[in-house]
Amino acid sequence: MFKIREFESEHTCLLLHNSLSEKQATKSVVGSIIVGKCAEPDVIYILKDIQRDMLAEYDVRLTYMQASRAKEAALELVRGDPIQSYAKLPSYFHILEATYPGSHVRLHKSEDDHFLYAFIALFTSIKGWEYCRPIVVVDGTFLK
After folding, report:
1. Beta pairing, strands 104-109 & 115-121
2. Are 93 and 105 in contact (CB under 8 A)?
3. What is the maximum alpha-carbon separation in the chain?
């Protein structure tokens, strides 16, 4: 429950021209608008392009920093959360081992279950080493 105890009829805060004359947009809203262009792998969508497109299509002026934050939000929508992505690695590695038998696939984690590193050697690559000629090269730079 809310109870109004006092009412001031005179408005004392300053109204800035920015709040009334210019349109506002949050990074998540702009990010959801530009996510399609950020998802295309062959297109480099720079911050100036974001500013230009938002002004042309929605009549919204973005600063360089706002465009940067919007692009980060859009890329997070495309890529997803890193924690959730790393959580999918064990199942991905299991599928790799099942699909390519004879491959060496290892996932190493710390004691507190954080990702450290991964090693992947597919069976076809391993078999390819059998046909390589063994060569030993000695670099005489540091030999006396």
Report:
1. antiparallel
2. yes
3. 93
Question: Which token pair is 96?
Answer: 């790799």
DSSP state of 140: G
23: confidence class by pLDDT, cuts 50, 70, 90: low
Query: Token digits for 102?
Result: 């004879």
Q: CB of 34 within 8 A of CB of 70?
A: yes
Tokens representing 31 are: 């990010």
Mean pLDDT calculated for residue range 48-75: 94
The answer, as to whether pTM is greater than 0.90, is no
- Going by pLDDT thresholds of 50, 70 and 90, the confidence category of residue 140 is confident
What token pair was written down for 57? 């299509």
| Residues β-bridged to residue 118 | 107
pLDDT tens string 92-109: 999 999 999 999 999 999
Question: Residue 4, SS3?
Answer: coil
Average pLDDT value for the chain: 87
Nearest to 74 by CA among 101, 94, 45, 48: 45
CB 42 within 8 A of CB 35: no
Q: What is the dihedral of CA 42, 47, 53, 59, to 10 degrees?
A: 160
The residue ranges of every structural domain in the chain are 17-80, 83-131
